Amino acid sequence: MVDASTSAHGDLKLSHLTKSFGDFKAVDDLSLTIPEGSFFALLGPSGCGKTTTLRMIAGLEEPTSGTMHVGNTDITDMRPYRRPVNTVFQNYALFPHLSIFENVAFGLRRRGIKDVKAQVDKVLELVELPHLAERKPTQLSGGQQQRIAVARAIVNRPALLLLDEPLGALDLKLRRQMQIELKWIQTEIGLTFVHVTHDQEEAMTMADTIAVMNEGRIEQMGSPADLYDNPKTAFVANFLGQSNLIKGAIESNGADSLLVNLFGQKVALPRSRSAAKDSSILVGIRPEKFRIQPEGKEMSGNILTGGVISDVSYIGVSTQYQVEMPWGQELIVFEQNDDGVPPLDKGDKVKLSWEPIFTFGLDGSQDANAGSKLIADEEE
Amino acid sequence: MAFLHATAKHGSSETKKRSWLPYLLLLPGLVWLFFFFLLPILTLVSTSTKTPGFGIGEFDQTYRFANYWDAIVNSRAQFLRSFEYAGIATVLALAIAYPLAYAIAFKSGRWKNVLLVLVVAPFFTSFILRTIAWKQILGSSGFVNRALIDLHIIGPQTHLTASAFAVVMGLTYNFLPFMTLPLYSSLERIDPRTIEASGDLYANAITTFRKVTLPLSAPGVVAGTLLTFIPAAGDFVNAEILGNPNTKMIGNVINARYLQIVDYPTAAALSFTLMFVILIMVTLYIRKAGTEELV
User: Fold this and answer.
1) I need a surface site. Which of A2, A8, B61, B175 has the fewest CB within 10 A?
2) Domain annotation for chain A: domains and CATH numbers
3) ipTM confidence
4) Given a cut of 60, is residue B128 above it in pLDDT?
C-alpha cells in the first residue's frame, strides 16, 4: 500500500457516506466537498452524526457505505495511521507518560523524520509554549494542554486537521481566546481544518463554511453570514442564533414581494427570500431586527400590533424583551441600549416593526420549534 | 492583603482543631501493626541469634550471629531454587495474565464483570485443594500427561508430577489472579483515546502497544510481578504437594525447621534473611522500573 500520510493533498470529498449502528443511521447518505485550505465546521446537536463523520474521516470508524477522497487518493479503507489526517481529540488525549516534547515528536518519530528537534521547537514556538517542553501533560493547565494537542497534530503537516469539540473542556473566556488563536494558526499554516462542534457561536467565529447537521444529514451549508441571514429550514433558523418564526398564509404573490397574513395582520417579505412551497409559510424575523415602541406611536415597515411585554431582561449592551402576541405566541426582541430611552416595563402594550427586507420565509409545514429545544439540552 | 491574612488565620485554626483526627484514625492500624507485626519481627530477630538449651524447644539468647551464616550456607540451594521458581512463575503468569487482562479491559464489553468474577473464582476453594487438584491434572492418568505422550512431545514413561515443572505450574496457577487484577486495573484506567491518538499519529498496532499501552500499564506490571513473586518465593505448599525432595524451596526448609526439627533459631534466621533479600530485590526493581510517579 502506498503511504499517503504525506503525499496526498487536495479537497476532501465525501460521497454518499453512511454509517449505521444496527437500525440507527448515525450518518445518512452524506455528500460534501471541503476545499483545501478552508476552515470547515460541522455544527449540530449531540447525536446528529457530526462526531461519527469526523471519526470516519480519521479512520477510527468504518463507513457502512460510501467513499472518502483526499484529492485523488481514496482513503475509505486506509488504516488510520496511513491517512494524511491528524486529529485534535476531545479532552486532548495527550500521552501522560511522555514529556510535552515527546508528545509533539510522536508523529514525526513514527514516520522516521530526521530533524525532529527543529520541527518540534518550531511548532512549540507557534503555540507559544516552548518553555514547557520538558514537562509532563498533567503539569499543564487545560488551555496549555489544548495548545499542545494542536501542536502535536499540526507538526505533521497533514492534508486535513480534524478537531473534535476541541474547546469543549475550557471555560468561556479561555474558549473565546482559543477560538481566535486557532483561527490564526489555521491562516498561518494554511492547512484544511475540519471542526466539529455543537457551539454555534464557536462555529461562526472560526469557520469559513459551516455545515449544519441534523439526524445524520446536512440540513444546510454555507458561510456563517449566509446561514444566519438565509436559513432554509426552521432547524437552522433556531439552531444558529435565535429566530421568531410565525405561522402565516400567503395572500398575494407579487413580482418582487409576498403579502402574508399573520393571524389577521398583513406583512410583506421579498419573494427571493421565501422558501415556502405553497401558501403555508413560516415568517422569520431575527430578534435584533425588531424595533419595539409603545402602542400608539407611528412606525414604518412591517408592523405587528397588540403585543404585551411579558418579560424584560437588561443585559448591558441590549435589553431583551419577551412580547406576548394576541395569538398567544411569545416573540423575542433584542433592543440596543443606544438611544438613551429607558427600557419599557413588563405589562406595557407595544407594537413591533421591522424592514420587510429583513424577513425570511420558510416552508410552513415544518415544526416552528425544530432545533430550539436541542440548544437548551446542550447547555445543560 | 487583609483578606489574605484573615484567610490564613482561619485556615490555621481549622488545621489545629483537626490535627489530632488523622492520628486517631491511624490508631487502630498502628496498634495492630505493633502487636502483630513489629513485636513478632523483634521476637523473630531475637530468636534468630539463640542457641539450643537443655530441653527440646528451649533456647538461650547467646547472640550467635553465625546462625545466619550457617543457615544461609546450608540452605543455599533452596534459596536459589526459590528465586528461580518464583521468577519463572512470575514471567509465565505475566505472559498469561497480560493478554487476559487486556482482553477483559478493552474487548469484553458487557462480559467484563463476569470475567472478573471468574478470575477471582478460584479463591472460593481452598489453596491446598486447588494445588492437590493439579496433582490429578498432571498425574500419569490425567489428560495432560496422556495427551503429551500421544503427541510424542514427551517420552512414554515420563511423569509430570513430583517435578520442578509441576511446582512451577502450581505456582503460576495459584498466583495468576494476583497478576491479573493489578494489570487489569492499570489497563482499564488507560483513556482509549490515547490509543486512538497513537494510531492517528502514524503508529501501527504493534508500535502503539510498545510506545503507549505497555508504558501506561507499567504500574500494573510492577504491582502484579511483586504480588506474584514475593509470595511465590516464600511458598512451600506447591513444592510440598507437587514436588520431590530435589525441588524443595526455602519455604519448605523453614517449615521443616519450625515444625519438624524444632530448630527455631535457624528457622528465624532463614525467615529474616528471606524477608531482607526480597526487600532489597523489590527496592532495586522499583527503582529500575521508575514507576513511582505513575503509581
Assistant:
1) A2
2) 4-229 (3.40.50.300), 234-379 (2.40.50.140)
3) 0.80
4) yes
